[in-house]
Amino acid sequence: GSRRTYKVQIISYFETHKLVVASDITELYQLAQIRRDFIANASHELRTPLTVLKGYLELMSDMPGERNPQWDLPLEHMTTQAVRMQAIIEDLLTLSTMEADSINAESEPVDVPEILKQLAIEARQLGSDEHKIVFEIDTHLWLKGYAEPLKSVFMNLVANAVRYSPEGGEIKARWYQDKEGVHFAVSDQGLGIAQEHIPRLTERFYRVDKDRSRGTGGTGLGLAIVKHVLEKHQAHLHIDSLLGKGSTFRCDFPAKFALKAK
Ligand code: ADP
Fold it and tell me: Can you say where in the cell this protein is located (predicted)?
């Protein structure tokens, strides 16, 4: 059809006047749509062949007696890489579903304390035992939102804190409400991030240290997912960091989404 998309800006000038500018962004909008579809289709198409490869790798790994031991290490590497590739594909799919606005379902009361309790258990398995992970949770604080996407936000932030801080470092995750709203904050005593990188961290595949990040099992998409999910909750990601000292990643949710459980 001939539906067109406009971007409308209202600019104030001379304090008394307002200028309304409408720009036709139909082509841009369509291009973005094509790009989204392409990423979604490509990720989807890659899933099946990868599943086949992984299946055979598992089969071979399960039959150590049937092969020359010199294949042990290559098999292990291939399995690691296949698992990584799968994680990247799943994250790309998650991102494109979110971009397609398909979380149009009604938001619902989310038992965040329960999600975090679960996460606290998973986090200990995920990090080496060398990290001290502390959770401070307001157990009466629920949120109006989307449970699964929120869970991946919390998981991504805690996983990063583990990934980018040294053994022995303390990681603190807090879920609380104050005058400004509802917050989930994760602090670590890790590498920290130089100021100039901070605005770009939520871009897909943006990494401060490419080589280091690849080795840590991240997909490079974690913070991009975090940003998208937060947008769906009218929330913002606030990043505070000091190089060599550590970082705090804080999600700020509007107070109007807070729900108080008994
Ligand atoms: P990755 O899979 O590479 O961790 P993310 O999107 O989760 O991808 O993060 C993007 C980049 O931001 C990381 O590669 C890392 O350089 C930086 N980063 C994220 N979290 C932290 C943190 N807690 N401390 C230091 N750097 C971080």
Answer: Cell membrane
